[in-house]
Amino acid sequence: MKADDVARYLQDHPQFFEDYHDLLAHLYVPHPHGGRAISITERQILTLREKAKLLELKLAELLRFGEDNDVISTRVHALSIALMTAGSFDAVMAALREQLSEGFSVPHTALRLWNSVLTRDGDVFEPVDERIRVFANEARQPYCGPVNDLGVVAWFGESAPAVQSMALVPLRRESRVVGLLALGANDAARFVPDMGTLYLERIGELLGAALIRELG
């Protein structure tokens, strides 16, 4: 009889060790970490302990994620308050840069708006390449990753060469995209393709609402 046949038999007849319970005390298997042989019962206990340890590590990881989310949520709340209380377009922009820099440690922030009823002087209202508009219109969620070929990195001006990763957040007015928020980081691991984008989307919604209020 082959080992596979024995394993299959035991799986198909779980009552075997109930019928031959004394046999468990006389069966020994190698220790999982080498060394002496141990009983099957002891091996089961070790297996359960290892599973319990893995569950503890997983729980600790989940708690850490929860704590991180609480911190981010608090920072988003602070940003929302700052945007709500800003009394002008310039105040909105100042609050945005301050909160992203101090609250989220984002060193580089740039913004472009289009299709606005009101335009002003400054970088925010400079013409935008059609490729960028198409990208913003078609994006289902914010882009996170290395500097791409859209040319958005140039929006960071003199800081552009230092940017190693970035997030691009479309700004919507109802169903229409009216702008793009660009966040730049000097660390290539700050914005990565597989990171969650929920809070970036919320930041985009908050900023979009604040700008619509000021620009109409």
Report on the structure:
- By secondary structure, the chain is an alpha+beta fold.
- Helix content is 47%, strand content 16%.
- It has helices at residues 3-12, 16-19, 40-85, 89-103, 130-138, 198-215; strands at residues 28-30, 37-39, 108-113, 143-146, 165-173, 176-185.
- A hairpin with a 6-residue loop joins strand 1 (28-30) and strand 2 (37-39).
- Helix 3 packs antiparallel against helix 4 and helix 3 (40-85) packs parallel to helix 6 (198-215).
- The radius of gyration is 29 Å and the shape is elongated.
**Strand line-up across the major sheet:** 3-6-5-4
Main sheet: strands, sense, barrel: 4 strands, antiparallel
Query: Gap between N and C termini, in Å?
Result: 82 Å
Query: How much beta, percentage-wise?
Result: 15-25%
Helix content: 40-55%
Element-level helix/strand string = HHEEHHEHEEEH
How many helices?
6
Mean pLDDT across all amino acids: 82
* Rg from alpha-carbon coordinates: 29 Å
Structural class: alpha+beta
Note poorly predicted spans: none
Query: How many β-strand runs?
Result: 6
Shape: elongated
How are the SSEs placed, and which strands pair?
Elements (H helix, E strand, L loop, with lengths): L2 H10 L3 H4 L8 E3 L6 E3 H46 L3 H15 L4 E6 L16 H9 L4 E4 L18 E9 L2 E10 L12 H18 L1
Antiparallel strand pairs: 1-2, 3-6, 4-5, 5-6
Helix pairs in contact: 3-4, 3-6
Notable characteristics:
216 residues; alpha+beta; two-stranded antiparallel ribbon
Short description:
With 216 residues, the protein is of the alpha+beta class. The chain has helices at 3-12, 16-19, 40-85, 89-103, 130-138, 198-215, and strands spanning 28-30, 37-39, 108-113, 143-146, 165-173, 176-185. Strands 3-6-5-4 form a 4-stranded antiparallel sheet, with helices on both faces. Strands 1-2 form a two-stranded antiparallel sheet.
